[in-house]
Amino acid sequence: FAINMEQLVLEHELGRGNYGTVKKVLHKPTKVAMAMKEIRLELDSTRLNGILMELDVLHRAVSPFIVEFYGAFFVESCVYYCMEYMDGGSLASLCCFPNGNVSLPPSLSSSPGSAWTSSPAPLAEEHLGRIASSMTKGLAFLKDHLGVMHRDVKPTNVLVNRKGEIKLCDFGVSGQLEKSIARTNVGCQSYMAPERIKGSSPSSSNVDDAFTSYTVSADVWSLGLSIVEIARGKYPYPPETYENVFAQLSAIVDGEAPGLPDDDDDDSSLTADVSENGDGRPVGRKWSPEARDWVRRCLIKNADERATYPGLLAHPWMKMDAERNADMADWAARAIEWRDRGRRGFAIYE
Ligand code: ATP
Ligand code: MG
């Protein structure tokens, strides 16, 4: 069936990106809650129809690791895109904090009986492993079943629900849509693989050139960087590079690749389990050697040496994940509550 605006009741705004607004809507005929993304494009109806036709392949993107697509339509010069509503929001909103600012609201840290005093919804290795395996399976599905790469893997494009499911959204299926979106804002945090940065020379004004100059392994880099960001609670390149795109891109191309933090790294205590050692001193939980190695293989700067999806899925860390019963619904509930409590007093993310 085809969705149109008349069937939708608009509810609140869920978030805003560089080129669109996402609202929660209710689809009256089916009573299904959906997320509707509005993308403003200055195009004629022929071109808008072309984009809708390209978006149609999304009906085939049915996987437990991909946000379900319900349909798209246009009104005036906006494309509206309806997808599964994910009631936990993005992994970025649950795990990533600008400048690593995860200090607890005073009301929480002063209540001794509260489960929230020790740590913000600790992200244990089993949770990180399940996030990594879900993202990898989603990306492998896009490649194997739709023949597309994602092109925009980052924590805001990984969504969570209270069932504990982890799903990808916002992948590039429509070349015409990609071309029409004015990518004016490169963003202060780049997830681009080094070869994408090298490939986009200023002389190539044709967007297609930039898109053909890299392959699916560029998504593997972005996957690894996203996992590191989720584990650390903040974007892994130094904050000094947030305001300076050039400094950040050269750190990605020329600097050392990021990895999972060590025990004695301050960052690790933000999201890892906090336990006590013999002296009663809290210590950050060590990420396993398997987890570190998996991430390291994603973040190999030379694209030819970087891991592939079959390689990542066959890795010992993914075997550990398959054998573990990670309680993602429990983690999601705690992370959502912590975020939403924090939001009352603090602007944590967005
Ligand atoms: P960018 O524009 O750089 O891609 P972004 O991914 O944050 O950044 P949008 O894709 O416009 O921007 O999404 C904005 C926010 O809306 C997301 O960060 C997420 O929190 C929320 N959101 C998007 N899709 C859904 C959905 N299906 N269910 C629930 N929340 C969603
Ligand atoms: Mg997005």
Number of strands: 10
What class would the helix/strand composition place it in? Answer: alpha+beta
The molecules bound to the chains, other than polymers, are: adenosine-5'-triphosphate, magnesium ion
Percentage of residues assigned to helices? 25-40%
Q: Which H/E pattern describes the elements?
A: EEEHEEEHHHEEHHHHHHEEHHHH
Q: Outline, from the CA principal axes?
A: globular
Which strands sit side by side, in order, in the main sheet? Answer: 1-2-3-5-4
Content of β-strand? 15-25%
Our Rg estimate from Cα atoms comes to 20 Å
- Give the termini distance in whole angstroms: 34 Å
Region (Disordered): 256-286
Protein name: mitogen-activated protein kinase kinase
Keywords: ATP-binding, Kinase, Nucleotide-binding, Phosphoprotein, Serine/threonine-protein kinase, Transferase
Domain Protein kinase: 8-318
